[in-house]
Amino acid sequence: MDIIEKNQQRINQLATQSPHLAKQVQELDWSELESALEECIFTQDEIGLPKDYRPATYFPLLPESAEQNDLYKKAYQHGESLIRAGKTAAFTVAGGQGTRLGYDGPKGTLPVTPIKKKTLFQLFAEQILGLSEKYEVTIPWYIMCSPLNLNATVSHFKKNNFYGLGEENLRFFAQGVMPATDFEGNLLLASKDSLALSPNGHGGSLKALIDSGSMADMAERGIEHVSYFQVDNPLVTILNPLFIGLHDLQNSDMSSRSLTKTGPFEKLGNFVSIGDRVTIIEYSDLPEEKALEKDSDGRIKYRAGSPAIHVLRRDFIEQFASGEMKLPYHRAEKKVSFINDKGDLVEPEEPNAVKFETFVFDALPMAKNPLILEADRREEFSPVKNKTGVDSLESSMEDLNKRAHRWLAQYNLSIPESSTIEICPRSYPSILDIEKIDHLERDLTKDQIYLTKHA
């Protein structure tokens, strides 16, 4: 008897006594589970790094030749025309909770700005509003939540009147889940009437876009390009005309931003090339000798790291609908509480289970003409992952403040370095024209300055 049949018999028997468990069993995609078991348990030792790979090439942040300079100008104008024509949409992966930050709620509802304490969702919403105003277009926003935080996220937006974007222009949906198993592939029960389920990873976003009807909605709106970003990065530029323009001009299915790594072991996935394809090797999987390799200029070779910022063609995502293109599963060994055969709850002290996850970057090797554009870390990336220290709430707030200082320094404004500055994201698209900043709020007692386009 194979493991799938064994699981079916055991769980179906238990489900006769539990309507909730019976519903979970009915909704479970057994063929998908079989694929996950095969990839992550039965043949996991056969899966390793590709034999031949090299550092991926990328477009530099600043053009390095007259020809490249002309291309960047053309791409920027082309990107603006795509935004103005309503061909672009925003897509946020927002399944995370604020638990590690000591915050009880969806991470997107966490206040992150230094003065106004705006939430991550508010930052993104106001940036979309500013882009919509600048380009005189409606930009739809798709937000993927987890099954656990979907209702709380929707309630947050309703409470804030959808931040003025219009309820009809936002779609919320939950990503899929996969059951956890023990190391032999046996399904685990979280309780007597429920499987141990967990989100299927950010790669599940592609299938969730399709299953939720979001792709059909995009097609109806005439959307051609989807801007993908994760909820924990308050510095992200949601729609970058240069990035989108290069992506379309190069006929890329999937394009990515890269960051120049601060060192060989920074915890960012590494962009690599295999033949004419691009993929990402996780920082923990890249051999040490490879990570330390340097080029003729003394720079580390594998320096292009991924901040999880992408643009994908809608018709590329749609190819995953038929099942002919599928993302591989990755094995994550975790501690999972479970009900044993005696009906007792077991709280393991060591990893005892396998969770099955897919990663969105695994779509890169399937994409035609993958393109990578370098990003300025100071401008585009400061994730909120921890409460203090590196990649924390406090470091992100400081990076927002430093960026605001740099932007205003372009106009030789005399602002003390000790001042805290916050700029309303609705003003971002017009920030290069200081005259369009029509409201400045200054609190001298706190040495704070807040700039907004609308009072």
Entry keywords:
single chain, 455 residues, alpha+beta, Spore Coat Polysaccharide Biosynthesis Protein SpsA, Chain A, eleven-stranded mixed beta sheet, three-stranded mixed beta sheet, 13 helices, 30% helix
Helix-strand blueprint:
Elements lengths: L2 H13 L3 H9 L2 H13 L11 E2 L10 H19 L3 E6 L26 H16 L5 E5 L4 H10 L10 E5 L2 E3 L9 E3 L2 E2 L1 E3 L4 H8 L2 H8 L3 E6 L10 H9 L4 E7 L8 E6 L2 E5 L6 H4 L12 E3 L3 E4 H5 L11 E5 L3 E2 L5 E2 L6 E5 L13 E4 L2 H4 L12 H17 L10 E4 L15 E5 L4 E5 L3
Parallel strand pairs: 2-3, 2-9, 3-4, 10-19, 20-22
Antiparallel strand pairs: 1-11, 5-8, 6-7, 9-14, 10-13, 10-14, 11-12, 11-13, 15-18, 16-17, 21-22
What report would you give on this structure?
With 455 residues, the protein is α+β, with helices and mostly antiparallel strands. It has one domain: Spore Coat Polysaccharide Biosynthesis Protein SpsA, Chain A, CATH 3.90.550. 30% of the residues lie in helices and 20% in strands. It is built from 13 helices and 22 strands. Strands 1, 2, 3, 4, 9, 10, 11, 12, 13, 14 and 19 form an eleven-stranded mixed β-sheet that branches. A hairpin with a 2-residue loop joins strand 6 and strand 7. Helix 1 packs antiparallel against helix 2 and helix 4 packs across helix 9. It is globular, with a radius of gyration of 23 Å.
**Could you name the CATH class?**
Alpha Beta
Number of strands: 22
Q: Ends: how far apart?
A: 69 Å
Number of domain modules: 1
CATH fold type: Spore Coat Polysaccharide Biosynthesis Protein SpsA, Chain A
The largest sheet, given as strand count, sense and whether it forms a barrel, is: 11 strands, mixed
Residue stretches low in confidence (pLDDT < 50, at least 5 long) are none
CATH architecture: Alpha-Beta Complex
Question: What structural class should be given to the helix and strand makeup?
Answer: alpha+beta
Average residue pLDDT: 91
Which geometry do the CA atoms define? Answer: globular
- Evaluate the radius of gyration: 23 Å
